[in-house]
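Input set for joint prediction.
Command: fold jointly, output tokens.
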Amino acid sequence: MLDRHVEDIAHLMRRAGFGLTGLELESHAGRSYDEILEDVLHPERFPAADDDIYDRYQGTVDEHEVHSAGLWIHRMVHTQRPLEEKIALFWHHVFATGMSKGEHRHSSNRQIDMFRSVGLGNFRTILLELSMDPAMLYWLDNNENHKDQPNENYGRELLELFSMGVGHYSEQDIKMAARAFTGWTFKQPIPQYTQGSYPAEFVFIESDHDDSEKTFLGETGRFNGQDIIDIIVKQPATARFICRHLYNFFVADEPQVPAWNQLPPGDPQAIDIMTQAFKDSDGEIRAVLRVMFSSDFFKQAKLRRVKSPAELVAGVLKLVGTEPVPASDITRYSAATTFMGQILYDPPSVEGWHTGHEWIDGGTLTERVNFAVDELADKNRIGVRKIIEALETQGESLSPSELVDRGAMLIGALHLDSVTRRALIEDVSVDGDLSLSSMGDSANASDRIVSLLQSLVSCREYQFA
Amino acid sequence: MSRPHALLRAGFPFLKTLGMRRVTNHPTDVAVASDDTIYVLNRHALGGHVTALPFVDPGENWDQYLPRMGPDGWGDGEFIWPVSMVLDEDQTLFISDEELNRITLIDREGAFISKWGEPGDGDGELKGPAGIAIDRDSYVYVADALNHRVQKFTKQGKFVMSWGGIGQGDGQFNMPWGICVDENNDVYVADWRNDRIQKFDCEGKFLFSLGMSGTAKGEFQRPGGVDVDAHGDIYVADTGNDRVQQFDQNGRYLEQFFGDATLSDMSRSYLMTNAQSLRLREMSELEPQKRFRSPRAVRVDDKGRMFVADFKSYRVQVYQKEAIPLDASQIAQVPRSPTLFVN
Amino acid sequence: MALNADSKNPVLVVVQLTGGNDFMNTIVPYSSGVYHDSRPTVRVSEDEIIPIDNELGFYSKAAPLKDLYDQGKMAIVQGVGYPDSNRSHFRGMDIVHTCEPDAVGTEGWVAKAVRSLDPSKKNVLTCVNIGRGLPRAMAAPGVTVTSVGNLDKYGLMTGLNEQSQRQRAIDLFEKTYVPVMTEGHEGVVMDYLAQTGRDVLEGADRLSSVPAGYSSAREYPDTAIGQSLRDIARIHLANMGTRIFYASHGGYDYHSNQVPTHAKLMNELSMAISTFMDDLGDHGAREEVVILVFTEFGRRIKDNGSGTDHGSGGGSYIIGDRVKGGLYADYPSLDPNHWEDGEDLAHTIDFRGVYATVLEQWLSIEAVPIVGGKFEQIHPFN
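tokens >
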């Protein structure tokens, strides 16, 4: 049976990062939850990713987004700053920008980098950076939002999907927001024929900006884009909407976003608490996350979220262990999430992915189970070997129930439903106790351990974050 | 061959650009054959090829220069992650592959000759072999990057000796990359993660170290390539700083190159068929296109031409060294102090 | 409108040519001086032309398709495209998958057709995709499409090599994917997972019987598309009730080295389709099947010295016994005054009209809600 404290840490690290193995968890067991949480909330306390190594071995990632995506998953697995990657993934869900429209990988990579660097900061800064981000400006046509010919796409989604949600503004407000963002565009980058592509840079073209008076959400002035963002971040609707997104991504699955103006939150009190933290901190995401991760509603929300494909793949890879130098075949990782229904860098639309149980259908469940089982098949993988070694130090032998419980702990303090646990024990019992003492038999013992690990990652509980 | 006493350094102009996207994708190394064919080693996300280009590029019919030597794969004569390439005097190409942990020998038509190397950390075993060089006595040196050492082999791959180990001290390495040998059989190593160049004799005796981390002149940010010309000048592909630096034989800083690319002849003919790219080029700020982006290797030939593998710009930039050798009677003695006196 | 008189339901096989098939070098305007002059490197020479008339001809590597054409079983739809054709592969493919050139669409046209064909989701095999991962054409919330990466090794735990070990793992899976007592949302999702897991096992059971029941005198080419069409034949002939099959043939993005690449692909595609048709014929199953071949865009009129860059004005092909062979719509004008943006073929028929043709005239389902409007159709069915 699992220790409550260790279970809480495992839960925190699955949600704020990509999970920890049982052995990592045990090394943290002596530290308090709050101490660990503060480390999580301050990625800058830990070394940054080895970008120079990535560039040396994977300097060709701009050839195709499956390479960029594979490298991102590698980062998720190896980062010492898990929340930095997780918050980037969060904003990628919310500000869903598809690389597919222009295939300009520089811009997409830079957008994710921007999410890493400002994603835990103030929401005003985040929206401002987003509004100056070439990938976003192109994705939502703000490069075609001209003084004499406004394009409302960015203005609309900024209000509908990126800040307040449907029902808190009028069509007139959208028009005004769009006008305020006229002239926010990017310089034409050098085209990729014939010497590769070049980054795009934000530019504000004053002569293409509509500087006339605008009335937006009841305020009047000669608003520019920054003023619109200032007004947006003050709105109570914005605080609630962003907190519901955070809750949906980090705490428990909510209905899909388009239904939010009809369906109330699953836990209105939790949203109230988070919204208050947002207001008290003037929109500091880190402050909201601190309140959220410390709360009882968070700790009680185990098994309340289905893992996204990226979380599943990164979690499995953390478990089996990979080398810090990215492997030549990292596209295997991004192919896996693609087969599971999530193409990183290319969400299906600006509304992002449908999450929760909608990640799962027959095809994607098959892919999830088969990926995990296949990865764990090799007992020489670093992580698998460590688990085998850890079990071998447990004494003479393990009974089937000891083996199942210990295995569940070692793959990351996985909580098993009683039905699952009973079935696993029954299955293990067919081969009797696991003898650890007779080394001559250790091949058989390690094969049995591998089979158990494969059974554990196949079960339903493993599909939850 | 002995080095000149000194040089009148007349200049180092840009000569031309070779290759383009689709022909020289992600060039990671260059080798010049005796008949002036330029071999460019291209690296892909999962594979690599060698392209053979004439120095004088006819522009049209670039189709014939498409890389066809060394397909992607694990088989003989195939590559997954090729890094460095060197030609021996028999015009055989030696190519390192850091994923396959082996050195592959192919002829100039791309036909497989042989391969050697096994993964591991024992003597003669390789883990992420990067730079490769051949000395006057036909010994082959390999920068064994993930074992943080240099290994010396015969051309047939028989282990001779090794030196190094991880660390920052003299003679230690952190993921070494480029390597070259001068005409005196001294060995230069781009000690990549230590941001320096180290010089050794051919027995691995440490001679000197050049540079430190930084962006100023004479400093490096993850240098990938190193070469030495007939005058003893040292060239460093300062990859992370997007430049090439030149030093004299004593390690004194001389000059830096940031790239001056023009469109290669084949690029021009390609772009002439592409109305949209022509328009977008007209709309963009073109200054950055001449600059190096992640230059990974620099190679100088006996004509004083400097070839830079301009990795992220899909091309090779070529410069021409202009220098007149001087003997001792032609140049004054070295004074003890600088002077403001002019006569 | 010719509806299927046979008792068997009409079946559609969609073949996607990924990367942008060069229509001009497939159905070649060989007598045109503009064609000749625009393509010094990649043009198809006269001795590689099998003429249709004195202007157009098949590229000889597609000779098996010409045979089908001569038998009157292949409709060539010329100049397929849409206004302001998008040159990004991904966006271009999204557009032809979702029928939404102006907005980012979320529902694929095939998925919407599946919804019409099987509204109560009676059969998880109504639509079968050969390959892993789902092209967006088949994706829509609530629509089930079965993706078969490898028919001979389909289902759960395929990485476990020993049959006994695999069976044991599947048995355990079945025992753990059962309803639970847990209350609230968590319990609902656990039960949903249980149901999905059991559906997977059931689908795998049905598909696992397919290979044993199939025998054929035809040898399919050992190419990806050949094997995909073989899988389609095997599943179709096993009467799984599948109405739409989907397969992809990749590699058409020939910016460089086009001549040998295009030759290889045309040979692969035409051999695969011709073997497939013969195989169906041997089994008396030709009448109920129609193939629709499409691509995301055509290529640029001028070659670039080695290949062709992304363009517009592509072609689609509709093949089957019930098809009235011939040329449909107009070949895009080669007159430089009519080129789009000074370099592309202008389309002559909207791709949504081609889908609508197949949906209404072959599958007998209403096309307007699927393709998002009324578009001019052709009439290629007997």
